[in-house]
Amino acid sequence: MDPALVESLTRWRRHLHANPALTLQEAPTAAFVAARLREMGVEVTEGVGGHGVVGTIRRGGASNRSVGLRADMDALPIEEANPGLPHRSTVPGVMHACGHDGHTAALLGAAALLLADEGWSGTVRLVFQPAEEGGGGARSMIEDGLFRRFPMERIFGWHNWPGLAAGTVAVHEGPVMAAGARFEIAFEGHAGHAALPHLTRDPMLGAGHCIVALQSIVARNLDPLDAGVISVTIAEAGEAQNQVPRRAVLKGTMRFLRDAAGATLEAGMRRVAAGIAAAFGLEAAVEIRPGVPVTANHPAERDLAAAAAAEVTEVRRDLAPAMTGEDFAWFLREVPGCFVWIGNGPAEDGRELHNPCYDFNDAILPVASRYLAAVARRALAAE
Ligand code: NI
Known about the structure:
CATH superfamily of the largest domain: Zn peptidases
CATH topology of the largest domain: Aminopeptidase
CATH architecture of the largest domain: 3-Layer(aba) Sandwich
Distance between the termini: 28 Å
Largest sheet: 8 strands, mixed
Bound molecules: nickel (II) ion
């Protein structure tokens, strides 16, 4: 890669790291992206589904195919703990702890590589999505006509992966990341004096049993060869130390790789909550809000991605999926595509996703840009 482009990639990435923007507040990042694309002479549309930016590169020739490459742009509400870092976040309480700064810079680099390369034809859509971190950015772009206004036959994306050797691309056969749903279970009882428990119906007791019993769904109802997670992460109840409260609420998240497993977890949760309520004389209300679907690669695009990655770097096909979620899943419901991981290097000294000491590894930017350009060329040249 041209050393001047390598230098630009690092400078762009560090600028984005120093100037992070929260989910749904990505205006400065979108403006930066649009400015870099315009400098390169790329046709730019801003404000797609919020702060989304779409760049289009067309080149006449043998192929009339189209392909999308996607990066996410948002940062997290985490206070950075890298005091010595020259490009440390300048925004209090906000940091790029998931490496979306690197994803954005690498896609700009792919645009530069494709513009400099005469050896392809067709249409490339550069999709810079906002609000990946639970903000519904992918769906906002789709609802704003992403695939209608900017037709693309396939789409490819990636996430940096701490713990995987720097620059190695991991391609999964099917599921890459999990589907998720958030749940809330509210137990209603009868409040009263803590020392006169026989005059109350105690929702705390029900909630306590429920926390334990929910784990029996994964352990006893789910096929042991299937993947599922239920985590109760918030318990809200009580105001006074000498009062049995009226209400106790449990909140958390569930994850799964197959829709059938999700249905098992949901049915189990409703059954356990209702059963515990009946046993303890309480009322239970269960609310489950679906999150992202499973991020699952399509077979032909998975093979295109693996071949493109092999042009550029080491490829691994043996990694298990992760139970974290990825908003890219929504794009894969619209058009076929593939989502890969690119190794960020050792997950040590806090170099882990969503850790306050995380920093994207600039050394993998050239690999990521070259992979994206290579997969676009292969998709446009495909039969
Ligand atoms: Ni991320």
